[in-house]
Specification:
Length: about 280
């Protein structure tokens, strides 16, 4: 009779076997194709407590064991003001998945919840700054975030439909405010539906956004809510009924931009016109 597997071993086995094609392979492809990790890196894996960042932490841990290029990992959880129940859920899931987290506190929710103008934007900016600062304090040169395939295409459409710009989400970025620091997105090619299937297969329950501004999305009947990003999700869902390959087409398009067909474009913050080379 074989030995009984622990919960983190079961989760890892599901990634390497059942979800190898859907999760492990696109994760590894993103790391390789976008050169996200190099020998000697020390990476802060940023965990919010949601399904995406928890899966990211597990994948990074698994990759570290087999990588030919050695790198270090720190698993950091910033508590922006969670209630006791949500904080306990994050710590419970980290233990279940065998992730040794470092938790630190901030007052981001208190600050963001006291402004009525773009609280989500303010919260995201403040979170990023706190994570960079903690990562640098721990001696890291990179932070890894859990943005996935669907975040990429939704951001592209959001920029075009509501921001009047064609702008994508990059797989890695140099920090403008923290010298020598980079941001990487190893889930860049992993689809949200597959993350959800992995979560459900393992019977895991993760934290949804614990902010009062987004509770309506979690509580709505369709899980969509009223934010612009959720509106884009609903639009994509509707368009996919007639074009199942829609998401892949959008993703491919940001890898195949033809600047020769644009009347103007920005590069390094400077606007350029097609007339410059006409």
């Amino acid at each position: 009779m074989g030995r009984e597997l622990k919960s983190f071993q079961i989760a890892e086995r599901s990634i390497s076997k059942k979800f190898r094609k859907e999760i492990w392979n696109p994760f590894v492809a993103a790391v390789k194709n976008y050169e996200l990790i190099k020998a000697g890196d020390k990476i802060a894996v940023c965990i919010s407590g949601g399904k995406d960042s928890m899966l990211l932490a597990k994948l990074m841990q698994m990759l570290q064991r087999i990588s030919e290029e050695p790198f270090e990992l720190e698993y950091i959880v910033m508590d922006p003001g969670y209630n006791e129940k949500n904080r306990a859920l994050i710590e419970k899931n980290a233990a279940l998945l065998g992730i040794p987290v470092t938790v630190f506190e901030s007052d981001i929710f208190a600050v963001a919840n006291n402004t009525e103008k773009s609280p989500c934007y303010l919260c995201a900016r403040m979170r990023r700054g706190h994570l960079y600062a903690k990562a640098k304090e721990l001696g890291c040169n990179k932070i890894a975030l859990g943005h996935h395939f669907n975040d990429v295409i939704e951001t592209t459409l959001l920029g075009m439909l509501y921001g009047s710009q064609l702008q994508a989400m990059m797989p890695k970025l140099h920090s403008l405010n923290f010298e020598g620091m980079e941001l990487i997105r190893p889930l860049y090619r992993v689809r949200e539906d597959d993350i959800i299937r992995w979560k459900n297969h393992n019977g895991l329950e993760f934290l949804q956004c614990a902010c009062r501004f987004t509770e309506n999305a979690a509580e709505s009947e369709d899980g969509i809510g009223e934010s612009k990003r959720q509106e884009i999700k609903a639009l994509i869902r509707e368009l996919k009924k007639n074009n199942p390959d829609l998401e892949q087409s959008i993703f491919n398009s940001i890898h195949c931009v033809c600047l020769d067909t644009f009347p103007s474009y920005k590069s390094n913050g400077e606007r350029h016109s097609f007339l410059e080379n006409y």
